Amino acid sequence: MSRDHVQSAEPRSAEPQSAERSTGQVPGGGAEAPFLELLARGASADAYEQLLLLARAEGRPAERIAALEAAKLLALRVRSELEGRRRREAELSALFETAHDLAGLRDLDAVLQAIVQRARSLLGTDVAYLSLNDPKRGDTYMRVTEGSVAARFQQLRIGMGEGLGGLVAQTARPYVTDDYFEDERFRHTVSIDSGVREEGLVAICGVPLMLGHHVIGVLFAADRRARVFEREQIALLGSFAALAAAAIDTANLLTETRSALADLERANEIIRDRSGVIERASDVHDRLAELVLRGGGVHDVAAAVAEVLDGTVEFTETAPGTALETSRAEGHAVRHEDDWIAAVAAGGELLGALVLRGHPGLDPVDQRTLERAAMVTSLLLLARRSAAEAEQRVRGELLDDLLNGRDRDPRLLRERAARLDADLDATHVVLAARLDGPAVGADEEAAARRRLWSAASHLAATRHGLAAARDGGTVLLLPLEGTDSATALARRTARQLGTAVHEAVTVGASAPVEDLATYPDTVAAAYEEGRRCLDALRLLGRRGDGAAAEDFGFVGLLLAGERDITGFVERTIGPVVTYDERRGTDLVRTLDAYFASGMSPARTKDDLHVHVNTVAQRLERVGRLLGDDWQSPARALEIQLALRLHRLSAPTTH
Question: Is the model's pTM score more than 0.85?
Answer without folding.
Answer: no
